[in-house]
Design goal:
Blueprint: E1 7-10, H1 14-25, E2 33-36, H2 40-50, E3 53-55, H3 58-63, E4 67-70, H4 77-84, E5 93-96, H5 103-110, E6 116-120, E7 130-136, H6 142-152, E8 156-160, H7 164-175, H8 177-194, H9 199-217, H10 224-230, H11 237-247, H12 250-273
Parallel strand pairs: 1-2, 1-4, 2-3, 4-5, 5-6, 7-8
Antiparallel strand pairs: 6-7
Helix pairs in contact: 4-5, 7-12, 8-9
The structure holds NADP nicotinamide-adenine-dinucleotide phosphate (NAP).
C-alpha cells in the first residue's frame, strides 16, 4: 500500500477500531489516518490510543482524505453521505463497510460519480480473523481495488465478488456465518451437559473442538469432506452421529437457512435504499 495515502474513517466504533489497529500493526502511519465521530469522548480515547487526528465534522475529514471508509450504522449512512457530498470533488475512494446498503444508493447520496467499493466484513474482523467480501462499482480502478484489499486485509482475508447479488450470498455465508458456528457450539455444549458433563467443561470442549477443526480445515491439504471421512470409522461413534445428522437432513437445514438469510439481505438492501 502507498503508506502515505490518507485514510479517513467516519464512525469511531468497533469496526473502525479493528481496522485502525490492523493498519497500524501492518506498518501504516497514524499520521495518515483520520477519524470522525459525533462522540467527542470516544474520539479522544481513540486519539490517545492510536495518535490519529480526529474530527467531529465528517465533511472536514472527507475534504482531506484520499480514501474514506464509511463505518457508521447502515440506518444513518444516507445522512452521512449527504453531509460529505459537496466535500468530495477530489474523487476519493469510498469504502463502505455498512451491512446491506447498496453501492447505487450510496452513489446517489454522494452525488452520482463516486468510486465506491462495498464490503461485507464479519465479526471475527474484530480479532483480525475476519472474512470480507468486496465488490466495486464501475468508477473504481485497479489501483483503488488493491488499496481497498490492503486495508481490509488488515483484519482478515478478502474475497472479491463479481456483483452485488453475490455480496448478498457472502452476507448469508460469512457475514451471518459466525452466529451459525456459535449456535453449533451452543448446541454441542448443551448436548454435552445432557450427557452428564460439567457446563463449563462442555463449553470449553465445544469451543476447542471448533477451533481445532477450523485449523485443520484451513490447512488446505484436504477438503472438509475428506477430513470428515478420515475421522469417520466404519460403525464407530462419529459415523453414528453423522448418519443421525443426515437422517435429519442437516444439509437441507443449512441450505434453507442460508437462502432465507440471502433473501433477507436483499430485502434489507431495498429498505435501506428507499429514502426518496
Ligand atoms: N461489527 C461488526 O462485526 C460488523 C460486521 C460487518 C459489518 N459491520 C458494519 O460496520 C459498520 C460499523 O459497525 P460497528 O460495529 O463499528 O458500529 P458502531 O460500533 O456502532 O460504530 C459506529 C460509530 O459511528 C458513530 N456515529 C453515529 N452517527 C454518526 C455520524 N453522523 N457521524 C459520525 N459517526 C457517527 C456511532 O456513534 P453512536 O454510538 O453515538 O451512535 C459509533 O461510534 C456498520 O454499518 C455495520 O453494519 C460491522
Amino acid at each position: 500500500m502507498q503508506k502515505t495515502t490518507t485514510i479517513g474513517f467516519i464512525g469511531a466504533g468497533n469496526m473502525s477500531y479493528a481496522l485502525i489497529s490492523g493498519l497500524l500493526k501492518n506498518g501504516f502511519s497514524a499520521k495518515n489516518i483520520r477519524l470522525s465521530d459525533k462522540d467527542e469522548v470516544l474520539l479522544s480515547q481513540r486519539q490517545v490510543e492510536f495518535g490519529v487526528e480526529t474530527f467531529t465534522d465528517n465533511a472536514q475529514l472527507a475534504a482531506q482524505c484520499e480514501v474514506i471508509i464509511l463505518a457508521v450504522k447502515p440506518q444513518i449512512l444516507s445522512n452521512v453521505c449527504k453531509e460529505i457530498q459537496v466535500h468530495i470533488h477530489h474523487q476519493p475512494l469510498i469504502i463502505s463497510i455498512a451491512a446491506g446498503v447498496k453501492s447505487n444508493d450510496i452513489n446517489r447520496w454522494l452525488g452520482g460519480t463516486a468510486p465506491i467499493i462495498r464490503t461485507m466484513p464479519n465479526t471475527p474482523a474484530l480479532l483480525g480473523n475476519g472474512a470480507t467480501g468486496l465488490v466495486e462499482n464501475e468508477a473504481v480502478n485497479n489501483q483503488q481495488k488493491d488499496l481497498a484489499e490492503q486495508i481490509l486485509s488488515a483484519v482478515g482475508q478478502c474475497f472479491w465478488v463479481a456483483n452485488e447479488d453475490l455480496l448478498d450470498a457472502v452476507t448469508a455465508l460469512s457475514g451471518s456465518g459466525p452466529a451459525y458456528f456459535f449456535l453449533m457450539i451452543e448446541s454441542m455444549s448443551n448436548a454435552g451437559v445432557a450427557l452428564g458433563l460439567d457446563e463449563k467443561m462442555a463449553e470449553k470442549l465445544s469451543i476447542q473442538t471448533a477451533l481445532g477443526a477450523s485449523m485443520m480445515a484451513n490447512q488446505n491439504n484436504e477438503s472438509a469432506r475428506q477430513l470428515r471421512n478420515k475421522v469417520t470409522s466404519k460403525n464407530g461413534t462419529t459415523q453414528a452421529a453423522i448418519e443421525s445428522f443426515q437422517d435429519q437432513n442437516f444439509e437441507a437445514i443449512v441450505s434453507h437457512a442460508m437462502r432465507v438469510a440471502f433473501n433477507r439481505a436483499k430485502e434489507i438492501g431495498f429498505e435501506l435504499g428507499a429514502d426518496e
